Structure formats: C-alpha cells, structure tokens
Amino acid sequence: MTSHFWRLLISVIVALGVLTLGWSNETKRPPVAELKISDAIVLGVVEGVTEFLPISSTGHLIIANQMLGLESSVPLVDQTGQPLWHKKPSEKNPDGVPLTLKLAADTYAVVIQVGAIAAVVLLYWEQFMKMLFGLFGRNSAGARLLRNVLLAFLPVATLGFFLHDLIDRYLFSIGAVVVALVAGAFLMLWAEHWRRANSGLGFSKNDPADMTPQKALGIGLVQCLALWPGTSRSMVTIVGGYLAGLSPVKAAEFSFLVGLPTLAGAAVYKSFRSGPAMIEVFGWSNVLLGGLVAAISAALAVRFLVGFLARNGLAVFAFYRLILASVLTALYLI
Known about the structure:
The chain contains 13 helices and two strands, in the order αααββαααααααααα. The protein is an all-alpha fold. The chain has one domain (3-333). A two-stranded antiparallel sheet has the order 1-2. Helix 2 runs parallel beside helix 12 (284-312), helix 5 runs antiparallel to helix 11 and helix 10 (233-243) packs antiparallel against helix 11. It starts with a helix and ends with a helix.
C-alpha cells in the first residue's frame, strides 16, 4: 500500500476512535443485548475480508453468527419493555416484524460495510478523482469510467429495489446459499477456462473506461445474479468483466468500483429502516469498532485479491466455495 493510503487510514482510525469514545461516554442506556468486543472484531473481519473476495460474504456471516450465538429469533424489547421493530406495524402489515438478535446482527453486518466502502475509496482515490473531474467535463477517461460504473450499477439497483422483500422472504435460507455457492463455483471454473482459452484476445490491454456502454450494461445485468444470497456480487461482476474483455486485475478493480454504490445503498437502506433499533441492541461503540475493523481487513483483502488474480485467476476461489458449501451442508442441512 502507498504511504498516502496509510496516512489516510491512520486519520480514519483516529477519527473513529475519538467518535467511539465520545458516543460510548454519552450513552445513557446500556445495550439491550451484549456484543463482546471480540464479537465485533470477528464480524468486522468477516465482513471486510469476504465482501470483496469472490467467496460470498453471506455464507461466512451465517457461520460467524452461529458461532457467536447471534441466531436467536426471540423478539427484543428496549429498557422500558417496549418492542423493538425491524419493520414497524403499518396498514399493509399490521403485525409488523419485531427485531430479533438475528435481524440485529444481519443489520449490523450491512451497516459496518461503511468501513469496507471507506477502504476502497481510499485505495482507489485516483480513480474517484478522475470520475469527479469527468463529471464536470475535465477528464474524458474519468467521464467514460463514471458512465460505465453507473450503467453497471443501475440494473441491480432497480431490480433489487423491487425484489428486496421477496428475496428476504424466500431466498434468505441456508439451502439457497448452498445452491448459490455451488453454482457460482462452476460458473467461475467455466469463466476461468474461457478466459485462458481466449487469452490471445488482448485482455490485458483493455481498461474499464474504454468499455462500450453495452458491455458495461452487460456486467450490470450479470451482477443481478448476486441478488440471490450466496452468489457473491464480487464474483459475478468479475466474471462479467471477463466476458467484457477485461483482465482479472481490471475486472476486479471495476468490481470494486461498481460495488460501492451497491453497498452504500444497502447500508443507507438498512440504517434508515432498522439502524437505530440495532444501535439500541448492540450500542454505538461496537458498531464503530466493527466498521473500523471492516475497513482495515477490506483494505488488506482488496490488495491481496488484485495480486492473487494477476497470478492465479479465479479457480482457487471456486474450490474454496465448494468447501464452504460442504461445511454449511454438514452443519445445517444434514
């Protein structure tokens, strides 16, 4: 990592540390449920490492939550005995959806993605500045890159907005995750075989900014597969990048950029819907600690992935997904 990145990361660590102490001291009521410091660190590492590697953050968080005892579905109440809500009662859903420890942990994992987002922004600061200058007509390559990022983001954002509740209701299960892990592994093996068979097409010379709008939109359509839990957004966008003619490194870097609005949108949505209740369950300090750990682990994971893909491609991650699917099957489905 560059010294510039480390200076920025140290600044983030100091700022988050000050905020953590401040919010911790200002808390008037203790958290409803205890989240140990070690638990916050484990969840931060799992989120940061698996979010950008093509191995499914969902599958790993299921195992982590189970190991940490965060799977309880008993409705939670606040310090005054009033119920905490994941979805408040409404005319359409008069019973509402009470907040449980499991739902709070799921929300926690999404909210601390902010740390992982910050890490990628710092690592790829130059690309973000190019896109910013491109937005104001001062960098043509940056304008094309911004266009392609937005085209790759819009399909999954649109489809996810309309299907979010249906996905949570029907696809958020161990069985669905296992199916996605296995299917994704074979897709990766096929994509890696296809890339190597077509290695003479000049993949290494292509750049995400030079892709046609049609290819960027195609990556966005492929990314919609990641709405099925366990598929891995990173995996499908890298595969889409392969098919669009990008090298493994360029495909991964484009995946990081495309993932940021997706992750940020999910974090804002979850924060708005059940963030305050989740904070009342776990406390501010643990949320900030998890975000900080996610930032550091995501930075290390991203740098590792770029170097690893340049040398080895996707195949190793495919075999790892098959092992993870076997572990989940043994633990939960047999």
